[in-house]
Every structure is written in structure tokens, then in C-alpha cells.
Specification:
128 residues; mainly beta; 4-stranded antiparallel beta sheet; two-stranded antiparallel ribbon
């Protein structure tokens, strides 16, 4: 089964060796449907005397159909350590004027001199 996609490729010269190079593929449609992303950010719960800030962009997903987005980011450095945040958003929630957003929530990875994790939750930026 073939699925038509459209997008563009950017050549990267950020390689260690001259004989190697890489490309970044940015998809703009999947099976004829435009794709989109959302920004997300927030502050984790306050645990063991500190909290962390985080921000990122979701993975792309098709526009105009039921969907969720995977996300991943690393928190700010606080109290000498960071945590990873990863998961999948909830389903799209329509906005009255058009577009949509997604809720997300979870628990960070365990880290720190006193091993612990933080809770986080929020809403993504709206889609166009």
C-alpha cells in the first residue's frame, strides 16, 4: 500500500565527517490531508523543594480528522538535574471560532540527588 505524502527536505551540513551528511524531512501532507503541530509549555508540580519549566512542539498529525499527537521534551535544569517529559495528547477539542487544542498530562522521568518525579499537565496551543 502506498500513501502519498508531500513535504520538503533540508540538507544539513552538521556532520562530524566530511563524507557524511543528513537531511531533515518536513512533511506538509499525509494521504492528501494537511498536517499540523502544536506548541506546549508549562511548569511541573513542586516536589522536593523545586519545580521545572518545559516547552516543546508536538509531532505532526493529520488535520481535519480525529487524531492525537505524541510529544517529548526535557525540562529546565533546576536543583542540579533535568527530567524527560513524553506522552500522547488527548483527542482534539474543537474551538468555537475554528481550530482545536489538546489536553496533555503525565509524570516526568525519575531523576535528582533525591530521586523523584514531577506531575505536569496543560493544553497545547490552538491549531490554525
Amino acid at each position: 500500500m502506498e500513501i502519498p505524502i508531500t513535504g520538503y527536505i533540508i540538507h544539513s551540513t552538521d556532520s562530524i565527517m566530511d563524507s557524511e551528511h543528513s537531511h531533515h524531512l518536513y512533511l506538509t501532507s499525509w494521504n492528501g490531508t494537511p498536517i499540523h503541530r502544536h506548541h506546549f509549555s508549562g511548569v511541573t508540580s513542586f516536589i522536593v523543594g523545586h519545580e521545572h519549566r518545559y516547552a516543546g512542539t508536538t509531532e505532526p498529525a493529520p488535520t481535519g480528522v480525529k487524531h492525537t499527537h505524541k510529544y517529548f521534551t526535557v525540562t529546565s535544569l533546576d536543583d542540579g538535574h533535568k527530567h524527560e517529559i513524553r506522552g500522547m495528547t488527548g483527542p482534539a477539542i474543537p474551538l468555537p471560532g475554528g481550530g482545536h487544542y489538546h489536553n496533555f498530562q503525565g509524570v516526568t522521568t525519575v531523576n535528582g540527588s533525591h530521586p523523584h518525579s514531577h506531575k505536569y499537565s496543560g493544553k497545547t496551543s490552538p491549531s490554525d
